[in-house]
Amino acid sequence: MTSVRRDYRVGGPEADRATADGLVEAEWFRPPIDPERLRQLQVRGNARAALDTAAWLGLLAGFGYLAFLSLGTWWAVPAFAAYGALYGGAGDSRWHECGHGTAFKTKWLNDVVYYLASFMLLRQPTLWRWSHVRHHTDTIVVGRDAEIIFPRPSSPTSIALLFVPVMNVPNMVVRTAKHAIGRIDDEARSFIPVDELGKLKWESRAYIAILAGVTAWSIAIWSIVPLLYVGLPTIYGAWLMVFFAITQHAGLREDVLDHRLNTRTVYMNPVFRFLYSNMNYHVEHHIFPTVPYYSLPALHQEVKVYLAPASPNTWSAYRRILSTLRRQWRNPAYDEPRDDVPAVSDAGRSFVNTGHTVWAGDRHDGLFDLGPANALAPGSARQFEVGDETYALFRLDDGTLVCTEGLCTHGQAYLAEGLVLDCLVECPKHNGRFDLRTGEAVRFPATDPLTLYPVEIRNGRVVSSLQSESKGTGS
Ligand code: FES
Fold first, then answer.
1. Residue 42 · residue 291 · CB < 8 Å
2. Is the CB of 418 under 6 A from ligand 1?
3. Are both 184 and 267 inside the same structural domain?
4. Pairing mode, if any, of strands 357-359 and 380-386?
5. Residue 455 falls within a domain, yes or no?
């Protein structure tokens, strides 16, 4: 070994180093994209996600039924293997996409699938929602990201245990039980807001109650079959989740602010893409998390010229990853080379904002000129700057113009780059949402309201005093 083993605990000593190095809640590279095209790609519907979800649950039920019919024969083994892979493997990308709230247009449909898949994976919904927000904020930043599954150096044993999580899942059950009795660990407290901890306790209690009920049923009939349907598939089906998850970040760089260096896109066949909900376009997902999974292939076409070439297929990605991991066993500081990332000379916020940002005109009669009233189409937004302050001007679908502060109250992302959904705007960074009529934060992780500013139209121009008129009530 040529370097000291790092401390991957969230909130441990590495967290202070990450802060000192400017890696915490920092701005990340984003490739340029036409704002109108991005807006098209962000559009959600219910039909595609409903079809995919029905296919997933239909297959799950079908293999579950086959397993039941073949109980007592060897045919039960492949039937349960397929059932488990759909439950503990394919459930992961459903959990993920619905956690972002991007699969369905309708919020409650995302929530139903999110809670179902969370249980299948034994992930406490509130804990993992916030953990995933952190993963997107500080991706593979040691001491900050709770979802680094390859702490270096990984070994053949640690990789094998990921595929069959005989230790990991029991540890998750113990952690859930502790949370159920109110013993919430420091890692969870480091990223979950205090007022969400109560929810975490009740979710944990529900999980423990279901698992205890199924276990009691198995004992009562002296058969493992009930547990093979609920509980154990999280363990014996996890291999498929890990099979895909390895391709996301393994072997790539830690502590960088560019997803092209720490995340991988892999071309996969249609079966894998169905099971994995297109998360093989992982660089694109990390950079633009407001784009739903079914639009990621199109997004890839828009931005691929700025990214490292995608791995041509799963096997070639694996060959490269395993070779890198083998080297990291000897030298944990080794990174998979990324010299194929194109240089983007004008990388940075101003480049991203091409077409978005305008500078507010001179002030007359105490009002700032925000541009022509007919320049904004319904459902679109524009960002503008006055001095050091950033603002956003939105046109809602009904034609109403709304001016707000320009940065998300959660993590300082530029809201004009977000998605306008009826009278809401969705933040481009973590999918938090605000009601543009009131400023109220209506979807996690945003909780603090937005400041609104009055606007009016004079001589065909939008004008505003940019004096705050209200602050929403938050949620
Ligand atoms: S930055 Fe996190 S929701 Fe906006």
1. yes
2. no
3. yes
4. parallel
5. yes
Answer yes or no: do 289 and 222 share one domain: yes
**Judgement on whether residues 216 and 313 belong to the same structural domain of the protein:** yes
User: How confident is residue 51, by pLDDT bands cut at 50, 70 and 90?
Assistant: very high
Domain count, the chain: 2
For ligand 1, atom 1, which residue shows the shortest CA distance?
411
Q: Is the pLDDT of residue 350 over 80?
A: no
Range of the domain at 449: 356-471
Give tens-digit pLDDT for 262-307: 999 999 999 999 999 999 999 999 999 999 999 999 999 999 999 9
Q: How far is CA 272 from CA 20, 269, 277, 305, in A?
A: 40, 5, 8, 24
Question: Do 316 and 449 belong together in one domain?
Answer: no
pTM for the full predicted model:
0.84
pLDDT digits (tens, 9 = 90+) for 310-328: 999 999 999 999 999 999 9
At a CB cut-off of 8 Å and minimum separation 6, what does 201 contact?
A: 179, 180, 182, 184
Identify the DSSP state of 266.
B
The arrangement of strands across the sheet holding 380-386 comes to 357-359, 380-386, 389-395, 401-405, 451-453, 470-471
Domain endpoint, select from 314, 330, 346 = 330
CA atoms within 13 A on the CB side of 251: 22
Q: Kindly report the protein residue whose alpha carbon is nearest to atom 3 of ligand 1.
A: 432
**Residue from 410, 424, 433 to probe ligand 1 pocket by mutation (most atoms less than 8 Å from CB):** 410
Cβ of 429 less than 6 Å from ligand 1: yes
CATH code of 456's domain: 2.102.10.10
CA-413 nearest atom, ligand 1:
1
Whether residue 441 sits in one domain with residue 365:
yes
Q: Is the CB of 427 under 6 A from ligand 1?
A: yes
Q: What percentage of the chain has pLDDT greater than the value 90?
A: 63
